[in-house]
Write a structure and sequence with these properties.
single chain, 1117 residues, alpha+beta, Rossmann fold, Endonuclease, Chain A, Isoleucyl-tRNA Synthetase, domain 2, 7-stranded mixed sheet, 43 strands, globular, RNA-binding
Length: 1117
RNA sequence: GCCUUGGUGGCGGAAUUGGUAGACGCGCUGGAUUCAAAAUCCAGUGAUUGCAAGAUCGUGUGGGUUCGAUUCCCACCCAAGGUACCA
């Protein structure tokens, strides 16, 4: 009875599908477990052997968890919107829905033949209207929400409108655009409807904004930065222009901090967490505003502040908190942003109780001796005072808080200072900078603006104008990418203008330089050459002063970026360590009204529009140019049919080709474009959503995939909660895996989903790489004298290397050539005196791996006749010893490299179980590894051996005899190992332990049911088909997937003796077997009296004998 | 540059808290079976040296801690991935 894998596998795959064996229920007494794969994009090329790696691992885990008594959700679906289908549609005119459908069919067939235990009743496709209905619904929810920084969550935009109507926006602390004006309720009410909408857009979590994009007119689309090479499109080489376009954006920046914080609570790989952390790029520092001097003159410094020492003295005066103070602080400390409070802060010579610097308000508890002096001092400084008694705080804290809230509505603003007469007073003449080191402000010796900075044109002096314009022109020619790539060249130009130092009033020259990027921070830096290497290099290059503000630090060679350096020469912060100085400086900046503490993120808001056809349409129409959401009850808004999938002639996205793409507000239906009247029928949005829209929430849909009332029912979401194990590639680190966390947090805020991190544990499977084969085309001009068409010559790898090394080797290796080839070559070479360069040039060409055998030998005729090698039909192949040996290189598996190995072939030749085991056996799951079919016979041999254990005299038979101690030991050793391996995702080692078990049982000639039945269950997560067949042959009626996993029992592994390694000075020399019951002394005695020990010692007396019972004996001396 | 991960036979890779380095598989060598081959089975296989018993070396490099280090510490080298004038 042969192991006929093809027959067995087909049989059980049909059984699983017919009986819906792996369907998960949403109601169960069992504990839940959710195992998720990153769903594939169904490409036309089908699956290659690299794709299933992660799916096999998750399938093993899912099957194991079922054996362990869990209700397992293990779904699969398709991320079926995307560019390749659209491009194929442009080329062939075929509807992307059609090709997508066909590709999905291929994927499904390929997945089924590997025997995955997916619950296909929950399949999702992002391109199906039933699914994208809910993608559109989420978009509407985002539009209708803003992010409240006080409660740290998304809130309905309607709440914002209510507040605006009552009291304007001065109190609002929300994530929003930077350019928001403060307005009162009256101003708000006086706004037109359109103006109000424009204001609200600045708060919404998704909003239309003018974004500068790379527009390629020929391709009719926006290109990402990495799609542009040397200023032209990577595809086609068309020119690209910077263009402002109205685009939908997602305010992911509102969630920056929570996206960082959440990483601490999830078990994801460290490198992936790190790349998200870097991508978000949090840096804490301060915004500082510098005034620009009007007439290039400066006045001496402003009044002196108390020194650090004096402040330390003042600190001692600070009293312990009273009960009332403590109570009040508990309430105040939670306020953030512009209503943030500090306690016990020093102002002048006084220590305040509480102060809100941004609103210029001091809160004091009455009853201090020097109360009158304090009040007059603070008021002179421009502060608003709130006096409270201990009693009223303790009795009614809530009324106290509302009293404070009212008071801060009317902050007094500081009077203009005399020095301001020297500087420009309008807002536009301020240079705002972000710095992580506000403590180094006394080290500022120049400022640098990005060349694109809008202030440059306003401040440049007439003398410098020409130079500046030339510089700006020169940098504009270089793309941002080029500028970033070229770090070495230092360039810049002086504007002729000066800023004023806010603390010592010194003149600071203003430069422009392309090391400052317009897109980060404010596009301007305060340059501190002693504390920043780039500023240092710039200062050295242009011979600008480098003041030293660090105590006992030498800055003659390079800048000091070390935060442990103590600040010096810096007025009131001299002598402070950096950390303290930063705090103090932030306070001073806020107090002066010229800056504030700020956390800056590298993360940008995500552009959410694409000028494509094959994506989710927006549920949006336009009324007077303002976007309007279509009511959710009319969803889905289905993708319209178009004639052509290209952009329109006038540069509109492909949906501009649709003739039925207008929204009628009366009938709530999509109607023909010619009905557009802008009163009841309006044009619909022409952009579509990007690829990451549908994949940002699909894991929730699986919980209740066929629900038409909600994205999933509350019960289903509450039952399944989150993904317990998520397996997929690390290439999605800063794309899908970040955006999906953002949407999950949003949906959590809205109360739609019960958890704000959707995947507890994530594993990145390593990529399976292809082993490409290369043939080498000799580029030496081998035309004959008459100049007849040259023959294309291919040279094997070894010969190529020889030729590159030295020309004479051709002569030496004459024996390797057939004479015809040799004469041809020799004739070419002999003709003229060719340089080494000329004849040692080769171009490697990919050869299809299916034409190469295991010994790297090329099927030359096959190569010549390969449909893709038409150019080489008549090429000459120079053989060595009658063979052509290809070169090998490990590369990413891809169609264009001809190194793709199809799982269909492997399944047909070796079986799905072998494929599953072999992919796991290749190495650790998380590691990248090249595919190499060489070892697969070993795994198949193992399955054959396993099969044979159950066969006696060519028929299936097991004995009911009692198993021996040894047999039980083998079984339980394996159970233990497999349990541990699955817990550690170390699937490669459990395949080894199966091999060991089968080898041992074969040696033991074990044919007993008591061993072989549990063994079948043990192996079923890995090789489910053979396990199912064996289980069935053993007489079981139910699927093996319903069987309980064998329980490990330690008693079978208990040993009475141990083979002790005996080492001398740490080197193992021999072993002796001793009872485990022996004491340390008895072991030592047994070892020391052993003849081999005496032999080793050769008469010496050991200095020390180390005995670790159960482990080792080491004799020193 | 910075961050992360890794570096072990001819190859893929094992080695749980420091305790017999190289499990398991491939490949290779020899043998059995066979008319022959495939398939299967048995034995051997880190390097050097030796007839052998054995000896010496050996987990990227150099140090250290320890009775004992692939494992812990320090410095460095190399490779892969991510990221980059981020102020």
């Amino acid at each position: 009875m042969q192991y006929n894998f093809n027959e067995i596998e087909a049989k059980w795959q049909k059984y699983w599908s017919d009986n819906q064996i792996f369907k998960a229920e949403n109601i169960s007494d069992k504990p839940k477990f959710y195992v998720l794969d990153m769903f594939p994009y169904p490409s036309g090329a089908g699956l290659h052997v690299g794709h299933p790696l992660g799916y096999i691992a998750s399938d093993i885990y899912a099957r194991y968890k079922r054996h362990k008594g869990f209700n397992v959700l293990h779904p699969q679906g398709y991320d079926s919107f995307g560019l390749p289908a659209e491009q194929y549609a442009i080329q062939t005119g075929q509807h992307p829905a059609k090709t997508t459908q066909e590709n999905i069919k291929t994927y499904r067939r390929q997945l089924d033949q590997i025997g995955f235990s997916f619950d296909w009743s929950r399949e999702v496709r992002t391109s199906s209207p039933e699914y994208y209905k809910w993608t559109q619904w989420i978009f509407i929810q985002l539009f209708e929400s803003y992010y409240c920084n006080d409660t740290d969550q998304a809130r309905p935009i309607s709440e914002l409108v209510e507040v605006f109507n009552l009291e304007g926006n001065y109190k609002i602390n929300a994530a929003a655009d930077d350019d928001i004006e403060i307005f009162t309720a009256q101003v708000w009410k006086d706004y037109s409807d359109k103006q109000q909408q424009e204001v609200l857009a600045k708060y919404r979590l998704t909003f239309l904004s003018e974004t500068e994009v790379n527009w390629c007119p020929q391709l009719g689309t926006v290109l990402a930065n990495d799609e542009i090479v040397n200023g032209v499109s990577e595809r086609g080489g068309h020119p690209v222009v910077r263009k402002k376009m109205k685009q939908w954006s997602m305010r992911i920046t509102a969630y920056a901090q929570r996206l960082l914080d959440g990483l601490e609570r999830i078990d994801w790989p460290q490198p992936l967490k790190d790349s998200q952390t870097n991508w978000i790029g949090r840096s804490q520092g301060a915004m500082v505003s510098f005034d620009v001097l009007q007439n290039n003159s400066a006045k001496a410094k402003t009044a002196k502040k108390p020194s650090y020492k004096e402040l330390e003295e003042l600190k001692k005066i600070r009293l312990d908190f009273s009960k009332a103070e403590g109570l009040l602080w508990e309430k105040l400390r939670k306020k953030k942003g512009s209503t943030k409070y500090r306690r016990k802060y020093t102002l002048g010579d006084y220590v305040t109780d509480f102060v809100c610097v941004a609103k210029k308000t001091i809160i004091e508890i009455s009853g201090k001796e020097d109360e009158n002096e304090r009040i007059s001092f603070f008021e002179k400084k421009g502060f608003n005072m709130v006096q409270l008694s201990e009693k009223e705080i303790l009795e009614n804290i809530n009324s106290v808080i509302s009293k404070i809230d009212i008071a801060i509505q009317f902050p007094k603003f500081a009077k203009k200072k005399e020095s301001e007469a020297l500087v420009f007073n309008d807002k536009t003449h301020k240079i705002n900078v972000f710095t992580t080191r506000p403590d180094t402000i006394f080290g500022v010796s120049f400022m640098t603006l990005a060349p694109e900075h809008e202030l440059v044109a306003k401040i440049v002096t007439d003398e410098q104008k020409e130079k500046i314009n030339n510089y700006i022109e020169a940098t504009a020619k270089r793309s941002e990418r080029e500028r970033m790539a070229d770090v070495k060249t230092i360039s810049g130009e002086f504007t002729g203008a000066y800023a004023m130092h806010p603390f010592n009033g010194k003149k600071i020259p203003i430069w422009i330089g392309d090391y400052v990027l317009a897109s980060y921070g404010t596009g301007a830096v305060m340059a501190v050459p002693c504390g920043d290497q780039r500023d240092y290099d710039f200062a050295k290059h242009f011979d600008i002063e480098i003041p030293n503000i660090f105590q006992d630090i030498d800055i003659s060679e390079h800048a000091c970026e070390d935060k442990s350096a103590v600040i010096a020469n810096s007025d009131f912060i001299s002598g402070m360590p950096a950390k303290k100085a930063i705090k103090r400086m932030v306070f001073e900046l806020e107090e002066k009204g010229i800056g504030k503490g700020k956390i800056n993120y590298r993360l940008r808001d995500a552009v959410f529009s694409r000028q494509r056809y094959w994506g989710e349409p927006f549920p949006v129409y336009y009324k007077e140019g303002m976007p309007q959401m279509i009511d959710a009850k009319y969803l889905p808004i289905r993708l319209p049919e178009v004639e052509k999938y290209l952009p329109t002639k006038d540069g509109k996205p492909p949906l501009g080709n649709a003739t039925t793409w207008a929204w009628c507000t009366k009938t709530s239906k999509i109607v023909d474009n010619d009905k557009i009247n802008h009163t009841s029928v309006f044009p619909l949005e022409l952009n579509t959503m990007p690829g990451w829209a549908g994949s940002s929430w699909y894991f929730n849909r699986y919980m209740d995939a066929n629900n038409s009332e909600a994205l999933a029912s509350k019960e289903a979401l509450d039952y399944w909660q989150d993904v317990d194990l998520y397996i997929g590639g690390s290439e999605h680190a800063t794309g899908h895996l970040l955006y999906s966390r953002f949407w999950q947090k949003f949906l959590f805020d809205k109360g739609v989903v019960p958890v704000d991190e959707y995947a507890k544990k994530l594993i990145n499977q390593g990529m399976i790489l292809g082993t490409s084969a290369f043939v080498y085309r000799w580029d030496f001009k081998n035309a004959d004298e008459s100049g007849k068409a040259k023959k294309i010559i291919f040279v094997g790898k070894d010969l190529m290397e020889k030729i590159i090394k030295e020309r004479s080797s051709i002569e030496n290796s004459k024996g390797n050539f057939d004479s015809e080839h040799f004469d041809l070559l020799n004739a070419s070479l002999a003709k003229k005196d060719v340089s080494k360069n000329e004849w040692s040039q080769f171009t490697p060409i990919h050869a299809d791996v299916s034409l190469v055998n295991a010994s790297n030998e090329l099927d030359v005729e096959g190569f010549k006749n390969h449909p893709l090698n038409k150019d080489y039909k008549d090429a000459e192949f120079i053989l060595e010893n009658g063979k052509y040996i290809v070169g090998r290189e490990v590369e990413k598996m891809s169609k264009s490299k001809y190194n793709v190995v199809n799982p269909d072939d492997i399944c047909a030749d070796y079986g799905a179980d072998t494929l599953r085991l072999y992919e796991m056996f290749l190495g650790p799951l998380e590691q990248a590894k090249p595919w190499n079919t060489a070892g697969i016979t070993g795994v198949q041999g193992f399955l054959k051996k396993l099969w044979k254990l159950y066969i006696v005299n060519d028929s299936f038979s097991v004995s009911d005899k009692k198993p021996t101690k040894e047999e039980l030991k083998t079984l339980h050793k394996t159970i233990k190992k497999v349990d541990e391996d699955i817990a550690n995702f170390s699937f490669n080692t459990s395949v080894s332990s199966f091999m060991i078990a089968v080898n041992e049982l074969t040696a033991q000639k074990c044919n007993k049911r008591a061993i072989l039945e549990p063994l079948a269950v043990l192996i079923s997560p890995y090789a489910p088909h053979i396990a199912e067949e064996l289980w069935n042959q053993l007489g079981n009626k139910e699927s093996v997937s319903t069987a309980k996993f064998p329980i490990f029992e330690a008693k079978y592994l208990i040993e009475s003796t141990k083979t002790y390694p005996i080492s001398f000075n740490g080197k193992m020399r021999f072993t002796i077997e001793l009872s485990l019951e022996l004491s340390k002394e008895e072991i030592e005695k047994a070892v020391m009296t052993h003849e081999k020990t005496q032999q080793q010692l050769a008469g010496r007396t050991p200095k020390k004998v180390i005995v670790v019972p159960g482990k080792i004996v080491n004799i020193v001396g």
